Amino acid sequence: xxxxxxxxxxxxxxxxxxxxxxxxxxxxxxxxxxxxxxxxxxxxxxxxxxxxxxxxxxxxxxxxxxxxxxxxxxxxxxxxxxxxxxxxxxxxxxxxxxxxxxxxxxxxxxxxxxxxxxxxxxxx
Length: 124
Prior knowledge:
It is a single chain. By secondary structure, the protein is an alpha/beta fold. It is built from five helices and seven strands. A seven-stranded mixed sheet has the order 3-4-2-1-5-6-7. The protein is globular. The protein starts with 6 loop residues before the first strand and ends with a helix.
């Protein structure tokens, strides 16, 4: 369904079963989407290793799906801009209007949406 070079970066990834980021990681994998996951501690969800830091050699990110509050997101803003993804999804509970404006000014599509709903309704 998705091209092999279609990569989603999940920020705020967790392996805790009640976290939406874990559910998103599982569904992304089920849909055949390549995933890079960044979280506060290293672990694994399915075949995806959750890393503590964004790899320096990371390229060709199509989508960034954010599950972080504004203060935790701060450290990733410059990197997200440099990665130049096609779009950034601000999942429910993530609110940073100034960063959304900055992304838009850099030609990056901004969505206030739910990655899980988008995947389940084939809108991803």
